[in-house]
TrEMBL record:
This is EAL domain-containing protein. PANTHER family: CYCLIC DI-GMP PHOSPHODIESTERASE PDED-RELATED, CYCLIC DI-GMP PHOSPHODIESTERASE PDEF. It comes from Microvirga terricola. SMART domains: EAL. The lineage of its organism: Bacteria, Pseudomonadati, Pseudomonadota, Alphaproteobacteria, Hyphomicrobiales. The chain crosses the membrane at residues 25-44. InterPro entries: Cyclic-di-GMP_PDE-like, EAL_dom, EAL_sf.
Length: 436
């Protein structure tokens, strides 16, 4: 019986040892599987980076062909700075921007691949070195770990590059917009601003549209970003302002007291010399001084430096009224804006109505119902914009809003070509179009 007990005990010990050895080998096998999986993932990332590099090479060849064509055109006798060359330059500029995205994506993929490989090596090393109390009979010796590539942790990922088809569509859109701009496809549409409650027209806001060669009419949201990317917003704003001056002259000739508001892009306002060119353009037509309102968004008024304030002061001193447009909140200093030359403040109707409804829940320094009075004391007239529903009108009247603008009163209408002058009349456009 004693012998049998010893044999049984020995069998148990042997079984435990074998089990521990099996567990160790199982752990080793799992580590090998993890290593193979990590290597496969790293290979996939490397393959993706290689594909991106191939796309970059293809786009570089595409750019080289365009540059060669541009050089040939520039060498042609008598070519000069033709619209065709400027259009080609726009295409090249757009392509360069897209290739920059390709390079950034390639760099991100390579950095991610290096980081993944370094993490994999680190994981294998830490997994292969158990604690002293848990060391198995078989010791796994890791290989020397290479130094990982440093990747800034705070770097924010940039937007993914557009697929090639979308990139080609974007280049095509840039070309169409540039061609329409060069061909004089800018149209001016006017939307009236009316006095409440009589709804009598007091002035007009000039809204630009761009008509493509296939007669498609683009809204500002569809073509302004393209012009900004190409750096042509100052030229666009000057063209629109020149057309607004022609409209103001037409209104004066008819004996109308209505004035014309023109939006200026924050991009243009920040360009050196732009506001000075606006001063020169208006000085060339002194009869319209006071009849053209220059509108800047609320964000631009909050971002004025000393140089732009001085340039706006020149316009203010010449009698050019200024306006705050595209407001996002009611946080403003009426006195400071008046000192800068602001004579109109355009606030979304829904913004004012919502603020008035919330006044009962919290105290404030002033009431929305007193807003028009506060502004009037500083020489600023309040305009409610984006009035789209008829039921909004009596609420605005109750709030004391003196002026309003929106589709409830009238939709924007295209200016007749003869109003803009003989040059515009040769474009073959109909006398009047409803805004698209």
């Amino acid at each position: 019986m004693g012998v049998l007990s010893l044999v049984a005990a020995a069998a148990v010990v042997i079984a435990v040892v074998v089990m521990e050895v099996d567990l160790v080998w199982m752990a080793v096998a799992l580590l090998h599987v993890a290593a193979l999986s990590g290597v496969a993932f790293a290979w996939l990332r490397a393959h993706e980076a290689a594909k991106t590099a191939e796309r970059a090479a293809s786009d570089l060849r595409f750019l080289a062909k365009r540059l060669i064509r541009l050089e040939q055109e520039m060498r042609s006798p008598g070519t000069g700075a033709s619209p065709a060359i400027r259009t080609t330059m726009a295409e090249v500029t757009g392509t360069v921007g897209l290739l920059g995205g390709v390079v950034r994506e390639l760099a991100r993929n390579v950095a991610a691949q290096n980081r993944d490989v370094a993490d994999l090596r680190s994981t294998l090393t830490s997994s292969a070195q158990p604690a002293e109390s848990e060391k198995p009979a078989l010791k796994i010796v890791p290989e020397a770990r290479p130094v990982p590539v440093a990747v800034p942790e705070k770097a924010q990922p940039e937007p993914s590059l557009l697929p090639r088809k979308e990139a080609e569509d974007e280049i095509k859109r840039m070309r169409l917009v540039t061609q329409a701009f060069e061909a004089g496809g800018i149209e001016l549409h006017l939307q009236p601003v009316v006095a409440l409650p009589q709804r009598r027209v007091r002035f007009y806001e000039a809204l630009a549209r761009l008509r493509l060669s296939d007669d498609t009419l683009l809204t500002p949201a569809e073509f302004l970003p393209v012009l900004e990317r190409l750096g042509r917003m100052p030229e666009f704003d000057r063209k629109v302002l020149a057309r607004a001056v022609a409209v103001a002259k037409h209104l004066l000739a008819r004996g109308s007291e209505a004035i014309v508001g023109v939006n200026l892009s924050p991009f243009s306002v920040k360009q050196p010399g732009f506001l000075a060119s606006v001063v020169r353009l208006l000085d060339a037509s002194p009869e319209v001084l006071g009849k053209i309102v220059l509108e800047l968004p609320q964000s631009a008024w909050r971002d004025l430096d000393t140089g732009r304030k001085d340039a706006l002061a020149v316009l203010r001193d010449r009698g050019v009224p200024l306006s705050l447009d595209r407001a996002e909140d009611l946080a403003f200093d009426a006195r400071a804006l008046a000192d800068l030359g602001v004579r109109f403040m355009k606030l979304p109707a829904d913004l004012m109505i919502t603020a008035a409804e919330r006044e009962g829940a919290s105290a404030s320094e002033w009431s929305v119902r007193d807003l028009a009075t506060i502004l009037r004391r500083e020489g600023i007239r309040l305009v409610a914009e984006r009035v789209e529903r008829e039921e909004t009108v009596p609420v605005l009247v109750d709030l004391g809003v003196p002026l309003a603008q929106g589709f409830v009163f009238a939709a924007p209408r295209a200016v007749r070509s003869e109003v803009l002058g003989a040059k515009e009349a040769t474009d073959g456009k109909p006398a009047l179009r409803r805004a698209g």
